[in-house]
Amino acid sequence: MRLTDFWGNMRETFGEAYASSVAEDQVLPQLGGRTVNQALRDTDTKHVWIAVCQAYGERVPARIRR
Asked: Which InterPro entries does this entry report, sorted A to Z (predicted)?
C-alpha cells in the first residue's frame, strides 16, 4: 500500500482534520503500543492500515477495510 493511499483511507475514515490527530495521538495495541505515526517510521504501511482497521472496526468504510 502506498503512503498516499494510506492517508487517503485515513481521511475518508476519520475526516480531514481528525485523521492526523488519530495518527499522532492514539496508541494502538495492534501496533505494539505505538501510534500510527510512530509505526509508519519502521513498519510496512499495509500492516499499519490493517491495525487501524482492527482497532476501529465498523468505523472504517467496508470498501476500504482490509
From this structure: DUF3046
